[in-house]
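quick q for whoever's on today - can somebody do inverse folding on this one?? i tried earlier but teh output was garbage lol. tokens:
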């Protein structure tokens, strides 16, 4: 048999390739004979220049109502290995972890001692079962600039709203890194217009959230995207509840903090996150900085856990003076200080904010008066303006955004009333994977006319593919014609280029 290619590993589902590597030693003894426990796939994430997180979760019956994936109430030994080749003939690291029931039998391996800027393959085994293989990579060595990175980012994947074909198309681009900017899963029960049935009630208990994550992870296109490259993940609201703000739920709920605790626990169990993100009750440190050599600093933000409640009752509002209060914050004081300090100290060619909600000002009400979204940075203007100024002092400041189920491209300005004012950075907003359904081709001309710094809009589903080099950033807005049926191809609706030291957008 010929040596399988990377695409064979990833797109052919070649779980059994290279069985002899694990087979050279007897399977570790674990109590209780299992059927295939790797039904949720594998994932990797949070790479640095010498390590990466490897993830899996054991689940014989992933859709079991109790959220335990059909697993017995006992621990299991799980082997893992990393190799530099697809056949696992050149294994460079291996070890053993314990999958415990109190963590829903999830496994988080922080595999260290790896080489910078290197592609690896990994997999797991428990008893005589071997997981699918995944591909990952480490970041380049600190300061390395003579490199490039193809990175895709996505958000808003509602299981019921459509098929996850966009994840498959994203994987086919073979990026070196993937960012997910929130709404990885949705809390709602299945609706009358859903294309696919969502299991269970609206998520509130730990069992609810575990089952919901498991159902999402059974999707083969999502599994493929996870197996293709390491992920950097941050949440938005729907991983817990729509439009929550710190300890304030959308609607009055005396049990909201229990719900938040349950959501955080399940999120950690199901994501390739480092142990520094392990939740402690209702708190979970998710904001962090990931350096990609000297090329990029990724500043991954949390705009839910520390924010003030939305001003003026939430929604798009006109004449809401409360949004202008200087003490209002979407980041919280500590995260703002951390971010501004990181921007000030950065020597990277590109400083990238990976975050959730629209950053640049956008008037969403055609004509007078102006209307702004109180759930976005417009509802926290002073906080936004301070961070925008910090971003403007970097060499190249870029904001990546999800949430709004539309493609947008915008310039971040020092004064939005003056189109010729100083540019502080650029913002790329990705549409949803499925949320909002198929969409349409409405150009949204009225909103674009109100906002000359906004250069592009598209109401189709998809993702954004970027390529970072020392000299420029290119962003391709990838779209699918439909998601309510599976199988749509991806096309590029528009491309924009940002040149080094030029804080403006140019359509390619």
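ok took a stab at it. sequence:
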């Amino acid at each position: 048999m010929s040596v399988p290619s990377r695409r064979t590993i990833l797109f052919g589902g070649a779980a059994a390739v290279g069985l002899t590597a694990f087979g050279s030693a007897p399977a570790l003894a674990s109590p209780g004979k299992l059927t295939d426990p790797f039904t949720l796939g594998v994932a990797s994430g949070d790479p640095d220049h010498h390590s990466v997180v490897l993830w899996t979760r054991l689940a014989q019956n992933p859709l079991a109502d109790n959220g335990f994936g059909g697993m017995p109430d006992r621990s299991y030994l799980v082997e893992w290995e990393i190799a530099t080749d697809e056949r696992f003939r050149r294994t460079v690291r291996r070890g053993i972890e314990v999958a415990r029931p109190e963590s829903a039998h999830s496994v988080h391996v922080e595999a260290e001692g790896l080489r910078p800027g290197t592609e690896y393959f990994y997999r797991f085994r428990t008893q005589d079962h071997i997981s699918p293989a995944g591909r990952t990579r480490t970041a380049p060595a600190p300061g390395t600039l003579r490199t490039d990175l193809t990175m895709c980012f996505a958000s808003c994947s509602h299981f019921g709203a459509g098929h996850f074909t966009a994840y498959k198309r994203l994987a086919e681009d073979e990026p070196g890194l993937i960012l997910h900017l929130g709404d990885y899963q949705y809390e709602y029960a299945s609706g009358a217009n859903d294309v696919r049935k969502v299991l269970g009630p609206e998520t509130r208990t730990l069992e609810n959230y575990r089952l919901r994550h498991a159902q999402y992870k059974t999707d083969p296109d999502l599994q493929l995207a996870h197996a293709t490259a390491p992920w950097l993940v941050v949440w938005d609201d729907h991983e817990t509840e729509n439009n929550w703000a710190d300890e304030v739920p959308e609607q009055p709920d005396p049990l909201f903090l229990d719900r938040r605790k349950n959501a955080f626990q399940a999120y950690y169990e199901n994501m390739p996150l480092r142990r520094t993100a392990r939740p402690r009750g209702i708190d979970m440190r998710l904001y962090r900085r990931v350096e990609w050599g000297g090329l990029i600093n990724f500043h991954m933000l949390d705009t839910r856990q520390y924010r003030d409640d939305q001003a003026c009752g939430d929604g798009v509002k006109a004449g809401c003076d409360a949004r202008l209060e200087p003490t209002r914050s979407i980041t919280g004081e500590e995260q703002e200080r951390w971010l501004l300090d990181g921007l000030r100290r950065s020597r990277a060619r590109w400083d990238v904010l990976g975050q959730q909600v629209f950053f640049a000002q956008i008037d969403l009400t055609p004509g007078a008066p102006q209307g702004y979204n109180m759930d976005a940075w417009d509802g926290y203007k002073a906080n936004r303006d301070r961070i925008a100024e910090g971003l403007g002092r970097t060499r190249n400041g870029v904001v990546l955004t999800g949430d709004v189920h539309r493609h947008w491209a915008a310039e971040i300005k020092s004064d939005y009333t003056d189109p010729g004012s100083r540019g502080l950075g650029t913002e790329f907003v990705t549409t949803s994977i499925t949320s909002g359904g198929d969409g349409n081709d409405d150009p949204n001309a009225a909103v674009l006319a109100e906002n000359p710094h906004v250069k592009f809009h598209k109401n189709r589903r998809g993702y954004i593919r970027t390529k970072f080099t020392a000299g420029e950033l290119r962003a391709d807005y990838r779209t699918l014609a439909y998601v309510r049926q599976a199988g749509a191809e991806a096309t590029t609706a528009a491309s924009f280029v940002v040149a080094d030291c030029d804080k403006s957008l140019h359509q390619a």
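fwiw The domain at 6-137 is CATH 2.60.40.380 (Immunoglobulin-like). also Confidence is low (pLDDT under 50) at residues 13-20. so keep that in mind when u check it
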